[in-house]
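User:
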Amino acid sequence: MKKAMTVYDIAKEAGVSPSTVSRVLTGNAKVSREKAEKVRAIIKKNNFKPNAIARSLITRESRMIGVILPDITNPFFASVFLEAENYAMSLGYSLLLCNSMGKTDIESMYLRILVEKKVDGIIMAGGRVNDTKTIKEHADEVIEVMEQVPFVIVNGKMTGVDSHRVYTDEAHGIEQLVDYLYRLGHRRIGFIGGVKGITAMDIKLKAFLDSAKEYGIECKNEWIVPGSFSIESGIESMNELLSNRDLPTAVMSVNDFTALGALKAATKRGFVVPDDISITGFDDIYLTDIMTPAITTVSQNMMQIGRTAVDVVVNLANGNKVKKNQCIKTSLVIKDSCAINSSKR
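Assistant: Predicted structure:
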């Protein structure tokens, strides 16, 4: 196998120094016309293309952005990544996907690896950045990374970490849902799913309780059933809620996965959605469209989240000033899982 040509081989053949070849490749410094033409001729003759690692050593740019997500099987995170990747590619960047599986030790491993790979920036969603109470060791680790590479948090916040953030107005999304259900005549509403201590739950639950109080909506303690963020959790939480003798006329779910589980549980128990009980989700993942009925939800504008996060990283990597906190608007997406309350409840 023929040995690949290197910068040093070109320099030797051209009778110049390796640094001169590097300057010709990057165009970052002046080289005499005669030397530059000689180097370019040898490059063209040998069809030389510097590999990514060599190029990064020359330009001090890897053109790579690391993305750490907690669960790539979740359509929300997958959609955000896809949009970010498409946009990054249009800017000449590649994304490195790191799936932490919701484990902080794996997050730590990926943070080290991405710094070692000299990525131009890191985007992180879920996991430690979603903990309502930040663990100091986790914060210190992120701060150390931020000293070496631009760092952007998506839909989260860490106490003591002055990071750039891209986040959606989740509270406003919940307020929109409550207003919509109220206008349909619902005065008794439950809330299921989520883990307390996770911002995705705490923000939404607080917004729900505040809005319920403002609208005069009844929400009994037994109608608030935490669990997790999965379909299975939605089934379990909905079954627990429906085991009560006194029931709400509508149930709001912490996310779409939970809503899918709630729909399945309610249907299995003989409830007709939305005639007997209305159900809402949150995120607007594609699965909500293919269910029967399609689930009313809130869009977090995943395309804008992905594009904005990449924009922040790229601008920071290029030394540009960037707004510290960028809030993405949510929007109500009305489908078929809610109806006018005609029950006597």
